[in-house]
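Extended Data, record DNA-damage-inducible protein D
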Amino acid sequence: MKTELIYSLTEHFEAHAQQTSSGVEFWLARDLQHLLGYAK
């Protein structure tokens, strides 16, 4: 993969991260299923 594509995909993935009040990042399964191409 080209470096630019990797950075673009990483940014897109990281943009969907949630964060707790103490700074811990997490992702919701419903968000990940769409990012990874799963319909259900």
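Summary. Strands lie at 18-19, 25-26.
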